[in-house]
Amino acid sequence: MNVPFVDLKAQYKQIKDEVTAALTKVMENTAFVLGDAVKSFEAAFATHHGAKHCVAVSSGTAALHAALLALGVGPDDEVIVPANTFIATAEAVSHCGARPVFVDASETDYCIDPEKIEPTITARTKAIVPVHLYGQPAEMEPILAVADSHGVAVLEDCAQAHDAAYKGTKVGTFGRAGAFSFYPGKNLGAYGEGGAVVTNDDDLAERVRMLRDHGSAKKYYHDFVGYNYRMSGFQGAVLGVKMNYLVQWTDQRRSAAATYRQVLADLPLVLPPDKDHVRHVYHLFVVRVEHRDAVMAALKDKGVASGIHYPIPLHLTGAYSALGCGEGALPVSERLGGNIVSLPMYPELSDEMIEYVASSLKEALV
Ligand SMILES: *Cc1c(COP(=O)(O)O)cnc(C)c1O
To answer: Are 190 and 321 in the same domain?
Structure first.
């Protein structure tokens, strides 16, 4: 049996006709950039996440960048980010001319460790960007408490956490804003690049809206230097269709995760942490094993794909090694980088496939 890491074709088959009709409508209206499809997706996405505003942009990285700029992050500022995340979280900070300050992960959820934030706060700290990693919300209560006590803004990186919730509330508006990605492989994926900023703050939403469109609120009147971060009409149309399936697909991911937990329970590996006060949306199902490279190779021989998210914590990557946060500085993130492995995870993953992954893993681990 072959078990791919993700299977975007399976999902396409389910919604093919609806997507084709939505894309055709964009062409008939020649609404290729922003337009009605994007506008109605923005409204649906804002409502789903309990936010007053959603501003659709061209990628998750653009969403993070525009949100940080709208929060006033600029040269000489510092922004606190986890070391255990995709590089875009830190890149967006760098794009503002600011400096990412890396904080270690917590063993309880692999997200930023709230207790390790305060010692890194300085007079230059402008914002904290917790990442809801692998689909599991970070500990927002203690993070907001430390941010508030120092007058520092919080921007949630929700790129892996569509439809996730913390203590019954959807992610995205715990801090000043939330940034989402609609990269095709994300839990809500476009057919190209896409992203969005959600916020309850009217001014912040307006600044992001202008930043995405060359600093203008009215065509050819440019109040400041902005960017071309607009979402394409096609992406808005695809996302609008997919929005109606998000909860169903998320529940399917959660059910696949529950099955994984049952069939992997007796194997010598560490199952993903799952806090009971969150809705974990399982963008990734990440286990920890000894001798990871050998295990991944054995899985590959069995036709089971796997991945590492992420092999090198950001403070040790070539892009950020010059910041001087060297090896040994963030031990939890470094340990995770050495033994995590992501197993296949997508809504259409069948019980039969999960059982095959488990039996392959069992052989690989002995
Ligand atoms: C995917 C991702 C991003 C970037 O999103 P793009 O749409 O690829 O630019 C940012 N942060 C995290 C945690 C991500 O997983």
So the answer is: no
